[in-house]
Amino acid sequence: MTVLDFIGIIILCYLIGAIPFGVIVGRLTRGIDVREYGSGSAGMTNVLRTVGTSAGALVFLADVVKGVAAVSLAWLIFDTSSSTFAWGQVAGGCAAVIGHSWPVYIGFRGGRGVATGFGALLVILWPVALLALAIFLLVVTSSRYVSLGSMLAALTMLVGIITSIARDREPFASLIFALVVASIVIFRHRGNIQRLLTGTEPKLGRKVSP
């Protein structure tokens, strides 16, 4: 195992995460760049509002697969019995979320990293991923604020992983993943936080006409 293995997985997973499925779907279905409408994000929620439910669901699944694929590459590159395997998974997952949020292919203007981070977490620690998903669905169902559900799900992931480490059930590397991804998700939602505080954040179901 060498430093080149880590550099390789970081670059490859960044490029996987940077595939802008939201922009691709918007252009193929409506001939638009979804980043020019609504929240300006290339993620599932903005696609749902600007293009439609089916397109939003497709983008969500594609972005989740990016995270799953990125972390799964560690199984091919690293020895699963070595102590570096967990770090390889974390490096791949973090790189994919960074790629999704700041994609090189479209001028570094991407999404919020939620779906891709969820996909990565499914491979790293699926029980915590399902818990975070449950919190997300509960918050969105009750408040209709996707942004609030996303941020609380990210914090749930962080708490869940800290708890697992405290019980000696997970390697310390997973904490780095949680810290990086939660920080990115909250940072990318900084505009949403301001709108939530001022009461101007749009709720789920509000359409944006291209």
Structure characterization notes:
The chain is mainly alpha-helical. The protein has one domain. The protein contains ten helices and no strands. It has helices at 3-17, 21-30, 44-50, 53-77, 85-101, 114-124, 126-143, 146-166, 173-188, 190-198. Helix 4 (53-77) crosses helix 6 (114-124) and helix 5 runs parallel beside helix 9 (173-188). The N and C termini lie far apart (50 Å). The mean pLDDT is 92.
Q: Topology, please?
A:
Blueprint: H1 3-17, H2 21-30, H3 44-50, H4 53-77, H5 85-101, H6 114-124, H7 126-143, H8 146-166, H9 173-188, H10 190-198
Helix pairs in contact: 1-4, 1-5, 2-3, 2-4, 3-4, 4-5, 4-6, 5-6, 5-9, 6-7, 7-8, 8-9
Structural class: mainly alpha
Average per-residue pLDDT, rounded, comes to 92
Low-confidence stretches: none
How does the major sheet shape up?
none
The helix fraction, in percent, is over 70%
**Can you write the helix and strand succession as a string?**
HHHHHHHHHH
Alpha carbon gap, first and last residue: 50 Å
Shape: globular
Percent of residues in beta strands: under 5%
Give the total of beta strands.
0
Q: How many structurally independent domains?
A: 1
Number of helices: 10
Radius of gyration (Å): 17 Å
